[in-house]
Design brief:
Order of helices and strands: EHEHEEHEEHEHEEHEEHEHH
Radius of gyration: 19 Å
Strand content: 15-25%
Low-confidence stretches: 1-5
Strand order of the largest sheet: 2-1-3-5-6-4
Structural class: alpha/beta
CATH superfamily of the largest domain: NAD(P)-binding Rossmann-like Domain
Number of strands: 12
CATH class of the largest domain: Alpha Beta
CATH architecture of the largest domain: 3-Layer(aba) Sandwich
Shape: globular
Number of domains: 2
Length: 276
């Protein structure tokens, strides 16, 4: 608290490379304003070789909290003092809680993904196909396997032999994609395809024509220009871009930092800021 009794403003932010595309600042600053708090949230362009120093600086300056995005989610694990159960299982962090000088790594991506998936409606998925070998994919798979109704997962990567072995998860390469697409009732793109600065195409064209009608298709990338996701929608899939997951992982992260449950009106304000 400051001398006049008002809460002192704190600095929060996101580390990424690239980071200019991030909408987290708009979302979190809208939430702080709605809550009447003097805090501010900033994007920080942090190259991979500078991550350790950047985290040390965040600790030293007493930042209120951090988000981590591509490519730092896995690399940051080695620099944490403690990990949440989800972060320990996935080996990936997207949210850092800074308490009494300690960096505590959390992963709200998985729970945020499930919150967003609920907005698409329908029953719990039975067989999911997840594309990508990074931290986002691991978070989604962990959430699906630890959900109230766990589902089987096919995990697709360019190098499936290098993926960790998880119970209930089959690993395969892109050469076997068509069979997986036809059999799944949930398809998730957790690669950087379509992200600013990322590749424009998948390793092989996605066989969208093999999707069963009504399949839920989620692209964690945002913003999404009409492309493969639009084609999936035209073929009868229920689609969602990455803004919904961004919203709900942000809600959970903000609740960790502030130690409160966010009112529904504040969540609605965050959503409007993202889609503005």
């Amino acid at each position: 608290m400051s001398d006049n009794g008002a809460e002192a403003g704190r600095c929060f932010g996101v580390f990424g490379d690239p980071v200019s595309h991030s909408r987290s600042p708009e979302m979190h600053n809208a939430a702080f304003a709605a809550l009447g708090l003097p805090h501010r949230y900033f994007p920080f362009h942090v190259r991979p070789h500078a991550l350790a120093n950047a985290l040390m600086g965040a600790r030293g300056m007493g930042l209120g909290g951090l988000n981590l995005t591509t490519p730092h989610k896995r690399a940051a694990v080695a620099h944490m003092d403690r990990l949440s159960p989800e972060a320990a299982r996935t080996g990936a962090i997207n949210t850092v809680l800074i308490r009494r000088g300690d960096l505590v790594g959390h992963n709200t991506d998985g729970a945020g993904f499930l919150d967003a998936l609920a907005e698409l409606g329908g029953s719990a998925p039975k067989r999911a196909l997840v594309l990508g070998g990074g931290g986002a994919a691991r978070s989604v798979i962990d959430a699906l396997r630890h959900a109230e109704a766990p589902c089987d997962v096919v995990w697709v990567s360019r190098e499936p032999s290098r993926l960790p072995a998880f119970d209930g998860v089959a690993r395969c390469g892109y050469a076997d994609l068509a069979e997986g697409v036809a059999a799944c009732d949930l398809l998730v793109n957790a690669t950087t395809v379509g992200m600013k600065g990322g590749p424009e195409q998948f390793v092989v064209p996605l066989p969208i024509d093999r999707l069963a009608p009504g399949t839920r298709v989620v692209d964690l990338v945002y913003p999404v220009v009409d492309g493969w996701l639009g084609e999936a929608a035209r073929r009868g899939a229920r689609t969602q871009d990455g803004l919904s997951t961004l919203l709900w992982q942000g809600v959970r992260g903000l609740e960790l930092w502030l130690g409160i449950a966010l009112p529904a009106a504040v969540v609605a304000t965050m959503r409007r800021a993202l889609y503005r």
